[in-house]
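Minutes, structural biology subgroup

Action item carried over from last meeting: produce the structure token record for ABC transporter ATP-binding protein (Aquipuribacter nitratireducens). EB confirmed the sequence was re-checked against the source entry. Recorded below for completeness.
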Amino acid sequence: MTGRSAPGAGDGAGDEAGEGLWCRDLDVDRGGVRVVHGLDLDVPPGQWLGLVGPNGAGKTTFLHAVGGLLAFAGHVRVAGADPARTGERALARLVALMPQRPVVPEGTSVRELVGLGRTPHVPRFGVTGPHDDAVVERCLERLCLEHVADRPATQLSGGELQRVVLARALAQEPRVLLLDEPTSALDIGHQQTVLDLVDDLRREAGLTVLAAMHDLTLAAQYADRLVLLEAGRVAADGPPAAVLDPVVLHRVYGARVEVLPAGSGPAVVPLRTGAGFVAHPRPRAGDRL
Ligand SMILES: Nc1ncnc2c1ncn2[C@@H]1O[C@H](COP(=O)(O)OP(=O)(O)OP(=O)(O)O)[C@@H](O)[C@H]1O
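Output recorded by EB:
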């Protein structure tokens, strides 16, 4: 399975397709089984798209295809590049993926691991320069990791490691940031610190963000738009308040929830059995109550 080029679009990095994400008829298989089915998506530059959906819906598979780690069929442009036809280093200068399950080489310090994010910017057979070192130090600082910078990354807590892996992705200085469950191991304070930081970078540098998240309340607070995936297809796509419908969530996740209006976006509150959940549609404007 290989990606095909979009009609009329050039090959390689940085062409006219823009700095967001565009895909048409995207199919991705895992282990011989189709997991993402004919996905069409337009994500304008600078948008934060929250990717939500149940376990196994295809969120990671989609992010890995867009990030050039998995073969696909269909047309994709990410930061102007076709991931199927762009070299690894060129793509890594445009797109960074923060994986759900990072691989940490034994004996690598936190600073060295973050420094790996500079690899695509360093000439082949070259060495890092003062600018690279400054980027790494800034990323360590912004993710409050200076105090662990010289420790082996394998000795960190799950939440500390998650911040290191984000720091490595940010050190790549990408145009599009793919985040796969970026806050799953973080306490509530660090969840906010990390997501606020990504949001600041988006505003400062026009970064496009695609973030797969299970915490629907958090996803709604930061994303401009949510795409709800169900078995590799889009079940809902729109502003968080429109996508987070208790009836839709019940159908797609089998979950009983209440969705409450909150200051910075809808809050999704789970209801335990017997708490009075009724799966009926929300009233719409014009409905007779
Ligand atoms: N390496 C693999 N080989 C075979 N099947 C795979 C592989 N990786 C993932 N799958 C399958 O592909 C489907 C989609 O998985 P994926 O990891 O993309 O889902 P997800 O939405 O990210 O799930 P989660 O929320 O649990 O992380 C699942 O059915 C999964 O079992």
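Discussion: Residues 30-31, 35, 53, 55-61 surround adenosine-5'-triphosphate (CB under 6 Å).
Next step: EB to file the record with the rest of the batch.
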